[in-house]
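BUG: 3D viewer hangs when loading the predicted structure for this chain

Environment: internal workstation, default settings.
Expected: structure renders.
Actual: progress bar stalls at 90%.

Input used:
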Amino acid sequence: MKNRLFLIFTVLFAVLTFTFNSLGQDSLQKDVEDLKDSVRRHLESQQKALRDAKKTGEVNKLVYSTNDINFSHDGKRLALAGNYGILIYDIQRSRKNVQVSYKPIKLREHQGRGWRVAFSPDGKLLASANATGTLYLWDAKTEKLLRTIEDGPEYSSFGCLAFSPDGRIIATGGSRVITKDGPARKGTVNNVSITMDGWITDGIVRLWDTQTGEHIRTLTGQARRVNSVAFSPDGIIIAAGDSLTLTADSRGRNPTVHLWDARTGKLLQTLKGHRYDIRSVAFSPDGKLLASGGDSAPIRLWDVNTGQQTRTLGRDSTRNLKDLDQERPPRDGVDSIAFSPDGSTLVSCSILSVLLWDVKRGRVLRKFREQNSGGGPTVMVFSPDGRTVAVCRSYELDQIVPKSNGVMIRKEIELMDAETGKHLHRIKLERYRFKTYR
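Structure tokens produced before the viewer hung:
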């Protein structure tokens, strides 16, 4: 229970840190300040426990947690975002092996925890976002900081990001606080009992000009939070997947995928079918299909032109949960998905496995043989040439730090051969002593 409260408080702290100033009501600001103080005290006690453990010899190494990974356009660099900030590794792939630079480049002007990271498709830019509302744009070749973008205080919209194919626009997704509307709300969705606080939010996608840093437009109308955003290969369509939520009148709202016209902001399609939070969306290389996956099976494939579901990958879940606040969603969902460069296969990763799927036949071709023994949600990305899959699998923190109540962290990055599924290389961060952030 303590672990669940810690995770909930951490998320609330990240959102409320940069939303409370704009709400304008003294009583509301006091409520937020009290909550922030409570969360801050809890985090400080966790930090003190870790420091004490180090002093007594219970812990003899730093703990690093990775939130996001991304390959450069040529596959020769791999960027990592985590509680150490942003790191960039040089990658050299031969036919059978991978060589990884021993010491990575650290982007020292990035402040705080690295939350998301992405290279532009043309290889010119690198974007990184922290957990407190700042987006950084870098020259991908020189690592020079070009500009920073500060989001509005009512927004938490750097939870996911994607470049347009020409690199001129970056789309970010997250949520927007509308108001605090009374007491907590309770409701039932898909036979699941849900309790939500009084904060009223909606999901949003915001578009930014990468050359000037100016805000172009905001796409609204989605549910509580946008978890994944993607551009179609021609840059015309933006896809965004959101979360299960309750409306202001406590009615349930299943998650959806929205398709937008990137040029006008017009809503083109609303794709319905998922029962739990959508974690990842991805276009096929030809732009004809969209894959979406989330907290329960199956992965769904959609015809982009018609909005019709064409195929599912994996079994649908029939397990009902008593309470999403107390239990994890079904363990047969996925955390991230990606098409191969030729579009014939798709890789998915989950709490249980990393799988390669035949898109046309809808069957599993291969289960990747992972080197580590970790479990839990994963982050995964295909190299641009389709030869390498990079996966960051989570570990229970009590495998590293005794008496840590089993907090789940994404710890090591594993590189695997996409054709054979074999382990190629593991990036271990413990050999470096980077400064870490909460």
